[in-house]
Amino acid sequence: MQDMKIEDLASDNYEETQLTFFDAKQRKIFYTEIETEFPEGCLIVSRTDLNGIITHVNKSFVMMSGFTEEELIGQPQCILRHPFMPPAAFADLWETIQKKEKWHGYVKNLRKDGGFYWVYATVIPNIRNNKIISYTSVRRMPSAKKVAECIERYPTLF
Amino acid sequence: MSYTMTISPDFKPDLISGWYIFNTWLQKQSDVAIHINLVNDFSELAQCIDNDSIDLIYANPCDIAKLVREKSFEALVKPVGVHDETVVITHADNPINAIESLKPSLKLAMTDVPDVNTMGTIMLEPADINSCDIEAIICSNYITVAKKVVAGEADIGFLLADAYNEFSSLVKKQVKPLITSKIDVLHHALLLGPNLQDKKSLLQKCLIMMADDTKGMAILNSMEIEKWELMEQDEAEILIDLIDTLSPYSN
Predict the structure, then answer these.
(1) A21 inside domain
(2) Which residues contact B193 (CB under 8 A, 6 or more apart)?
(3) CB-based contact B5:B53 (threshold 8 Å)
(4) Domain assignment present for A3
(5) S-S: A113 plus which of A10, B52, B107, B207, CB 3.0-4.6 Å?
(6) What is the complex's ipTM, to 2 decimals?
């Protein structure tokens, strides 16, 4: 996964950090405080393979992420990982779905332009003949109250 | 041998004749004897599915999981460009203009149409309202949902967006939409059961070519369908996964 590019950012007022993922890969992140509101009535839908590589995205995913569909397909889902999110949340996600269970959670996602958007995410394993073949993720508009709680709680989970 | 077709009970009543003409057309084109058995509601449909008394069905996306996973149905075709979307309405005079302003202990008028109710429930989540916060008033059709809201018997109502769009201006003046889904991924589909599986290619061919024929096109128009397109089994599986993801009750 490529590092973010300063020329893609929507603002000159940004912070920089280095994220390390579960597989020890690293990515340079630039992020701003610019929030994109979740569009009313929409759902962000994606599918990944067993390694978390994106295989399908819908129009809302493309619009909210700021990437093109071509840029997203073949990339790991963690291209959306925002440094605000505690790694424990994603560890819980993977542990849950690998047990063939549904995972829910509130997630702050990173856009290509360094901005962010909050979602209420549900991820399920796609099971065929009792084997997980892929994962489906649906993200929708979160409750403002729940987001406010996460803004308080997530920094304590690092 | 005669086979039985049914149509998900959420179809518009004024399209009944179109479906009967469609059935006659399909029998002539395929030389397969098919009898239409209409059901009154989703509980009667569930009984028919349980009793294995259906061979061909125009199914609501929420019924596709059971049909495919438990009853070995296969995807045949889907209507081009037709998606199911939901509108949440309230009374026109209600000072509330956004979902986020709704409070728990809501009276909700709804039909038994499962995908509309699933989408509607999801759209209440930003207000922290879940099924425990709702008193549901089950209605037999969408106009009754609107009437309950207009009469003040319900605070909000769930409607299929197409049904709301076809309401008279008189009804529309008395209600207002709080939110409309733009999901773009849920749709009905024509599925065939195990007894008809040897006729799958034949039926698919007839249906795909239906819009190429003047008479076929006229029948499609009477069902408010532009044309049929092939639906792969994997697409049905993806739809099922999506419904599973959205369902508040599945694990």
Answers:
(1) no
(2) B52, B54, B55, B56, B57, B67, B71, B72, B73
(3) no
(4) no
(5) A10
(6) 0.89
Q: What is the DSSP secondary structure assignment for residue B31, as one 8-state letter?
A: -
The tokens describing B178, both together, are 């709080």
Number of domains comprising chain A: 1
Residue of B nearest to A132 (CA): B241
Q: In whole angstroms, what is the distance from residue B182 CA to residue B85 CA? A: 7
**Contacts with B29 (C-beta within 8 Å, 6 or more apart), sequence order:** B206, B210
Mutate to test the interface with B, among A46, A60, A124 (most CBs of B within 10 A): A124
Comparing A112-116, B9-13, B198-202, the range with the smallest average pLDDT is B9-13
pLDDT one-digit tens code per residue, B162-194: 999 999 999 999 999 999 999 988 999 999 999
Does residue A78 lie within any of the structural domains?
yes
* Interface probe, candidates B178, B242, B243, B247, chain A, greatest A C-beta count within 10 A: B242
A124 close contact with B: CB closer than 8 A = yes
Structural domains of chain B sorted by starting position, each given as residue range(s) with its CATH number in brackets: 2-82+185-246 (3.40.190.10), 86-180 (3.40.190.10)
